[in-house]
Each structure stands twice: as C-alpha cells, then as structure tokens.
Give the backbone structure.
Amino acid sequence: MPTRLLPLLAILTLFVASCGSSGQLQIDGLAAEINPEKCVENSGEEVTIYSGRTENLIEPVLEAFACATGVSVQVRWGSSTQLALLIDEEGNRSPADVFLSRSPGPVGFLESKDLLGTIDDSVLNLVSEENRSSEGSWVGFSGRKRVLVHNVDLVLDAELPRSVFDLTEEKWRGKVAIPGTNGSFVDWFTVFRDQYGTDIAAKWLNDMVDNDARYYPNNRSIVEAVGRGEIEVGLVNHYYNYQEVAAAGDKHRARNHDLDDTDIGSLLIITAASVLDSAKNPEKANELLSYLLTDSVQRYFTNRTFEYPLAAGVQPNALLPKLSALEIGSVDFDALGGGFEETAKIIEASGIQNQ
Amino acid sequence: MTPTRAPRELRLVGLICSMAFAFPGLYLIWRNFTSGADPLGLLFIRQTLEPFWRTVRLAVLVSLSAAGLGTALAWCTTRTDLPFPRLCRILLPIPLVFPTFIGAAAFIRTLNPGGLTNDIFASIGINETPELRGLFGAWFVLTLFCYPYVYLPVAARLRQLPGSFEQSALILGDTAPQAFRRVVLRQISGSLTAGTLLVFLYTISDFGAVQLMRYDTLTRAIESNYLARPPMAFALSLILLIFAGVVVLAERSVNRRLPEVKSRRTSQPMTYALGRWKTPAMLLVGATLAFAVVAPTAALIDWAADGLLRTQRGGRPLTIDASKVIEATTNTLSSSLITGFVALLAVTPIAFLVGRYRDRIGRMTHSVVIATFAVPGILIALSLRFWTLRSGFVGDLLYDSMALLIFAYVVRFASLAMGTALVAVKTVPDGLHDAASTLGADKWRRFRSVDLPVMRPGLLAAGGLVILSTMKELPISLIVAPIGFPTLTTRIFGSFEDAFVAEAGIMAVILVCTSALLSWFLVLRRADHL
C-alpha cells in the first residue's frame, strides 16, 4: 500500500503548501465590523502571539489589527496553561512577542519566572489601576464576572442566595456544582484567600465539600449540566451561559444569577495580555495591546462576545449584569502569583476533586 | 533456515528509533532532576497513592471489558454468518477518532439525566437512567472508546487463522467452545495481549474522559499541578511512565510464554452458523454501535443542527465558514496520512528485529516505543520543544516545521502499529523465505517479493490505527504544529472551550465522517485480512 498512497500524499502536501498566504489583506464579517476602513499596505513587520483566548472570539480582532496597521500577525492557539508551559520551556528563545491569557493564573506563573517584559505606560494607562499590573507586566483587556448559574425549572428566583457563604447551608446540600480545579476557579479562590484570609476561605471550601458540593472539571460542563437539570446551581463565569443561550435559546434551561455586589462570588476575572521579555518586536507588541483597548475592539467584546469592556469610556452591553465593586485588579496580583501553590494545596486537601 | 543474527544496518535503525522514542522519557527524568522534584518522596503519600490506585483500578477494569468486547466483536464479524458484516467492519473502528474531551461530553449530553435519550427511555417506561460519572462512567466511556485497540488486531488475526486447526479439534471431539478455548484463543493470544496492553496504557494516560466523568486519577493531579507546582507534576508524570514501563515488561514476559503464531494462507478460515445465537450476536454488535458510535454522534449532530437552524433564523452567525472547514480537514488528513506512513517505516524494522531475529536491541526498542504510549501528549510536545532548543541549527531548521509535527505524532502513536506489525512479520512463513533465498534472491528482493506482499494487509491495518488516532490528537497539534496549521481537532477544541457548541459539533461530525471514509477504504483494501 505505501507505494500506492505516495502520489496521494504528495498531492495533498502540495495542496496544503499552496494554501498559503496571499497578497493584499481583505477582511469581512466581524473583523470588518471592528475596522470598516480599507486595509493599510503590509508594512513587512510581524507580531507573534501565543493566544489562550480561542480563535472564535479573538481572530476577528487580530484580523482587524492586521488590516488597520499593516502588521502581519502569527498566532499559536492553545490552552493558556499549556502555552504558559511552552513559553517557560522556550525561555528567552521563545518566538512569541505577546501572550494572551484567558485567566490571570498563567500570567502570574510567567511573571514569577521573570519572563514578562514591561508594557508601555501609554498602554497601561488605558485601563483603570485595578485592571493592570503595578509592575507593568500585564494589562487586562476584557472581563468575565463570577456568577451562580441555576436551572430555572429546579430553583425558584426567590430561593436564590445572595452570597457564596449561603451555599454552605443545609438546603443547598448536594445541589451546588464547583469547577474545583479549573483555572478561573483557582484564580478566584486565590483572591478569596487574599480578601478574607486563608482560614475563612479554606473553611468555606471544606464546608462546601461537607455539604456535598459536586465537582465538575470546568465552567462549560457545569453550565451544560445545569441546563439539563442534572444539578441545580453552579459557580461559574457569567460568559458561558450567554453562548449556550445564543446556541439553543429557551431549550437551554439555565440562567445566570448575580450574587451581591460586594460578595466575593461577584468577582470580575480579567483576561490578560502581556509582552514577553524576549519579544523581538516589543514596539508592535505594545501597539497590538493598545489596539485591544480601542473603543471599537472593546465594543466588540461586550456586544459580540458578552464580556465586560475594561478600557475607560466604553459601556458594558445592556444585557450584562452590572459590575460589582470588587475587581480582581484591586488585589495585589503579584502576591497572587506566588499564592497559587498554596491555593493548589488547599484545594487538593479539601478533597473537592472527589465529590 | 532463517538467519538468527540480525543484519547490522537493521540493528542500527532499531537503535536510532529507540533513541528517538526515548526523548519524552529522558526529558521527564531531566526535568525531575532540574526542578528539584521528589518522585520517591511523593510515591508513598496519600495524595499520590489514592489517585494512583484509582488509575490502576480503572485501567484494569477497562482492559478486561475492552478485551472481552473487542474479541467478541472480532469473532462475530469474522467467523460467523452475522448479517451486514462489511458495514459492521466499517463502523466498528470509528470510536477511535473521538477526541475524548468532546466524545465524553457528547456521551453525557445524550445519555445522562435530561439528555437527548431521556424521552426515548421514558417512552419505554424507564424514568431513571444512571448518571454517567465516577468509576462507572469512566469505565463505560473508556471501554467504548478503547475496544478498537483489541478488536482491530484480533479481527485481523482471526481472518488469517486457518480453519483446519479448528476442524481438527472438532473432529477429535471438542465442542465449539472447547475448540475456541484450546485452539483459537491460543492463536489469537498474542494479538489479544498486545491490544489489551494498549487499552491499559491509553486508560492510564487519558485526561479528557476521566475529568468529564469526574473520576480523579493521576492525570488530573498532573494537570492541575503544571502551573501551581511544576515539580510535583513532573514527578507524578515520571511515576506514571515508570508504572507503564513495568506493565510493558510484565506483558512481554507473559507474551514470551504464549504459543507461536501459525499461518497457512491456503486454508480458508472457518465460518460458524450462529443459529439460535444470531439474535444475541446481533444485539451485541448493535448495542456496541448504538452506544459507541450513534450515542455520541447524536449529541454532535444535535449541537450542529441547533447552530445551523439558529443561523437560518437570523441568530448569531457561525464563526466558521466552508473554507475554514476545508482547510482544517485537509490539514487533518494530510498530517495523519503522512504520520501513518512514517509510523510504519519506523515500526517495521523494529518488528523484524523482534519477530524474526529475536534481537536484544529490537526488544528494548519495542518496550520503549510501547511504554511511550502512556506519556500524556502535552509532555511529548514540551519534550520535543526542549530537545529542538538544545540541538543547535538542526533544531532551528525543524522548529515550526511539518517534519517536527509528524515526528511528534509518530512518537505518540507508533506504539499502536507495533503489535499488529509484529504479528504481520511473524506470519511470513519461514519456508517461503528459505525458498526465495535458495533461489538466490538477495535480502532486498526477498523483502519486496516475499515479506511485503504477505505483510501488506497487516501493515495497512496497523497504519489505519495510527491514522485514526492521529486525527484526534490535541496537545501536540496545538503546541508542535507550525503556526497557522489548524486541524479539525484544534478547531473543535477552540470552539468547545468557549461553548461555541454548534461550531464544535459541525466539525466533530466532519471528523467522524472523514474517519468513516478512511475506515471504509481500509476495509475495501482488506486491511483486516492479515
């Protein structure tokens, strides 16, 4: 067989090779919505991005950037954790200029390894102080709020709690889903420790385990399970339910519930961008970061992907619940980075992963 | 007589292969030293022992059930008068192609409470279906994902097993079950243990299915420690790899005591009339296909249909278009076909060393290749980045190239081809070989005109296993692939991560259809007629 398959393989390889890039950039769809202008001539410059944000959400933004600036963009898509590990492995020989992370943890990891460079002040100043690093090593560019997702057939609105601390009560026994080892939950729990002290945070988690809280691997699987009625409520990022409703409408039986504004359960988790210390093109990397924070991109995030805009002056989509006072940036993020190891130990010791 | 000493160039190839396949293991050992990890200290603490014990329990259960199911399916489809044998043979390998992160989610979507089959079950009076989770859920799903590792090699072996053996046994007074135990089982035991070993190793390395089933194994402990406590993640991975090595060595010592494989190509395999067993046999095959192929595909189609209908009604438009789908499909097909071909090139010399010459280097390489199957894909990806960074200009040349991607895939999956290729080598009758050499044919001529034609179907089956598995590979496709080389699986992952279920569903359905086409091609080429 090998000899007979060879020509087929050769043709396929040639075909793939010929599908390469073409000349003048043209954009349409969502990218054109972000940048309606005609594309600038290619400048020959290039930025390489490792993106833990997935292409469905970010690709139009990057296309619009390439169109608006003439800088061509190379992207390696992946999970934020795996890309952070890759950058750590590559060290200062990494081809990446920019790292986009869907939660703060991986950025904190790279910061603790001294792999992040300093972002220009002009970019940092585009967001308020809570949403950027005091060291200048990362900047938030969109936000996702923690909420309680609930099944509308199984839980009445009047029964819904106001704080995560209510969930340790007997009436919630066996009814709460927790994404115990998921990145954004780990980040959230680290902030929880920072705000309330480790003892209170650890006690809450242990009480949840005692109250038969059920473990799920990630936000998406919780939203799906709550939608089916497999479990009553779950602690997740607000964003996933919007996508499920967008996909299935009323057939999907779950809705978001906002806990009290001042409750830790209403924390805003940011998605972060950083420039690598070893970036070959830091100037264009900074230009990209500032582009992420332009009005048109921020409006795209809130209107098309249902996230919270972080740049000053852009209003959140009216559909989104109003923002609480507590934002992740109000926490010392650098301490947070180092705190992950302790968080991992507490979560592991609580035994939530076996629930 | 066949020469007992292997040709030197063959041993050299074997040695090079063993080094290539040792990359991930050596990387892990190096990382354990440099990160100050303490694998020995971790070995006997509760946090390691508990997930480790759960991993072992799951792997043993899945191995047993997949071995039983795979063998039964192979026997039914090859040796009996089961209706629609060809359709069954095309459909049965398909579960191999489901990436577990979406495959397991699709199972949950279809079968769990409130799922798609709820109404169907309710209409026949079943109101409470068990929730797929924990040990039961992980066992159920992994058995259905893994039985092809046993089914394919055993079916290939059964087709080629001469019927005369069983006829002799029956004439001498054995009942059919006795003949199966005393003759058939002994003859398929090599393929059976090799396939079961793959199931075992796959199960201990799986992350996607166990995490969705919420069954806490070692891979979950590794995964959640990568960033928080890297030394611990490396140490646990090393423990996993060493455990895999021990299991591989154990299988080898069992395998050595198994009877020799016999073949005679003139005699037709026996066909049994199922008689009153026809209904149970059809139920078994039907239920397997319903659960392993139809159930997950139903959820995928449901997701895809929702998205397409929504777009029709003017809701949020899909984020993919035809050109993106075509690009991902061609990338998937080209990279997996090339991987299948290269894996055969790598594995065949090793199979010769072990099967024909019983060479020490060959046996060592064989063990290294197979144990590597238990290394999580992300670690293979990171280890290749590690080695290319440290190999000067060769590394620069390879970085971001197709060649490196194919190499990584081969390291990950060549083990799947190993067992089948080994049986294929052993089935070349010595007499044929000796006759050719008496007639003055040199070794290349002998390889081309004697070995290759006899081994061809077996090698095709082995290549098929590799190809179907490569199509679903995720971490290597994300981390090692050249920038701008999306595959169907990376696209599915990207969409599914952010709950773009319609896009994920559409591309997963395309992945399943593509694999069915490949499977059809392999059946057409009689790849299961070893």
